TrEMBL record:
Keyword terms, alphabetized: ATP-binding, Cell membrane, Kinase, Membrane, Nucleotide-binding, Phosphoprotein, Transferase, Transmembrane, Transmembrane helix
Protein's name according to its UniProt entry: histidine kinase
TM annotation in the entry: 153-172
Membrane topology reported for the UniProt record: Multi-pass membrane protein
SUPFAM superfamilies: ATPase domain of HSP90 chaperone/DNA topoisomerase II/histidine kinase, HAMP domain-like, Homodimeric domain of signal transducing histidine kinase
Molecular function GO terms recorded: ATP binding; phosphorelay sensor kinase activity
Organism in which the protein naturally occurs: Halopseudomonas pachastrellae
Chief site of localization: membrane
Known catalytic reactions: ATP + protein L-histidine = ADP + protein N-phospho-L-histidine
Annotated Histidine kinase domain residues: 236-448
PROSITE patterns per the UniProt record, alphabetical: HAMP, HIS_KIN
Metal-binding in keyword set: no
Location of the protein in the cell: Cell membrane
Length: 448
């Protein structure tokens, strides 16, 4: 792997850190340099003090000069004075002419003040004669760099934090942009949009995330192909089965009109109807499993629905007894009349099929706190406890308990389809052993 993403992140962070450290260092030096000189206004104040002292000195009024110096020292809370410089040669030293004119006892007002020194320097303003000087220890209010501490915090803490935050934000957006596109495409694919792809949106990238997008697109394309082929095969199977079934039904009807064997013809018709129902159930089951629909867009009266199903069952299974216990009304909201009706019909038909002639099937509907519970019990041979969950699998066949054990009782698609339809309406179904040895189906449906 070329690890392009690794190099992008590494170079961004390393180069960013180097540039950040260099920038902080340069800004700190420039800021310190700019803050190390006395403000021009304060320089003018100090020169004004020197001019006043020089005027008093030239007037020869030493007492007035002393009083004025005392006033300045109290006002600025510092030391101030007027002195005269005079060199005293020793040991025959010869002082060059004019040398003593350049001697200073303090700092010039334009000199740099070091911010790291705790003591304030003495400032020196010479008089016009070149030998007398006004000296004053720099007042604290005039000291430059009063905001140097705050500036250091800004430069060493706030600035790096802000820059690093921006870098992290840029890296996060660079990483999350393709991941969000991939997430959106995955959600669309999950919701049934099998054309969802992400590669075109990341065409400009050449890193590992672009490779991941290509793998996703290949997977999505393959999955879409399989799903479409499966749907096409199911549609072809439906078409191929329905056409001969229709021809058989037409031939049977013609044979009956011409006086054929009525019993045999009825059996053929029944087989044809069974095949047609099997195809319909298989298609419905496939649709529910693939699309996972939520069938909760209708309101209905469960008692009314059960009454119609029970009337049909009594007509079709006249040799079985149906014992029914229903409340006057059982309202359901957010359900599906068609799906729920087909599911309960399959459960009821299964119970009647496995109950011998003359047997009893019991159907009871009771109200719970937030749901309705429907129980359907038959008098069949029952199912072993370890197989109670397996009977909801398509085409599951339970071992028959008859002597020899060669025959197997079939459950087809009815219960498998019933469970998926009931779950699509928000309910649940489970099987258990009935008190009389048969099978009991327990269906719970939320009221809303």
């Amino acid at each position: 792997m070329n690890r392009r993403l690794w190099w992008k992140l590494c170079l961004t962070l390393v180069v960013g850190m180097l540039v950040l450290f260099w920038a902080i260092s340069q800004l700190a030096l420039q800021t310190e340099e700019a803050m190390s000189f006395i403000d021009e206004g304060h320089q003018q104040t100090l020169r004004s003090y020197a001019a006043q002292a020089e005027a008093l000195h030239n007037a020869g009024d030493e007492q007035a000069l002393a009083r004025w110096l005392e006033t300045v020292q109290q006002q600025e809370n510092t030391w101030a004075g007027v002195v005269r410089t005079q060199l005293t040669p020793l040991g025959g030293t010869v002082v060059p002419a004019g040398y003593d004119d350049g001697i200073a006892l303090g700092r010039d007002l334009s000199w740099k003040i070091h911010l790291y020194f705790a003591e304030n320097p003495v400032m020196d303003v010479p008089f016009a004669d070149g030998h007398t000087r006004f000296l004053i220890k720099l007042p604290q209010r005039m000291r430059p760099g009063n905001y140097w501490t705050h500036s250091r915090v800004l430069l060493q803490v706030v600035l790096p934090f802000t820059v690093l935050l921006i870098i992290c934000l840029l890296l996060y957006r660079h990483l999350m942009h393709p991941l969000r596109r991939l997430e959106q495409a995955t959600r669309r694919f999950r919701d049934g949009d099998y054309s969802a792809r992400v590669g075109n949106e990341l065409r400009g990238r050449k890193d590992e995330l672009a490779g991941l997008a290509k793998v996703f697109d290949a997977m999505a394309e393959r999955t879409e192909e399989l799903i479409l082929h499966q749907r096409q095969r199911l549609a072809d199977m439906s078409h191929e089965l329905r056409t001969p079934l229709t021809r058989i039904e037409m031939a049977v009807s013609l044979a009956r009109q011409q006086g054929g064997d009525a019993v045999l013809l009825e059996r053929i018709r029944g087989e044809c109807n069974g095949m047609r129902q099997l195809v319909e159930d298989a298609l419905t089951l496939s649709w529910i499993e693939q699309e996972a629909p939520v069938l909760r867009d209708e309101s209905l009266d469960l008692t009314e629905l059960l009454d119609s199903l029970i009337d049909d069952a009594r007509f079709e299974f006249a040799d079985r007894e149906l014992q029914v216990s229903l409340p006057p009304v059982a309202p359901l909201s957010r359900s599906s009349h068609r799906a729920l009706g087909q599911a309960i019909e399959n459960v009821l038909r299964n119970a009647l099929d496995h109950t011998p002639a003359g047997g009893v099937v019991r159907l009871a509907l009771v109200e719970l706190n937030d749901s309705w519970q429907l129980t359907v019990s038959d008098q069949g041979k029952g199912v072993a406890d370890e197989l109670l969950e397996d009977i909801f699998q398509p085409f599951f066949r339970a071992p028959q308990t008859a002597p020899g054990g060669a025959e197997r009782a079939g459950f087809g698609l009815g219960l498998a389809l019933a469970r998926r339809q009931i779950m699509a309406t928000g309910g649940s179904i489970a099987a258990c052993a009935a008190d009389n040895g048969g099978l009991c189906m327990v269906i719970r449906l939320p009221k809303g």
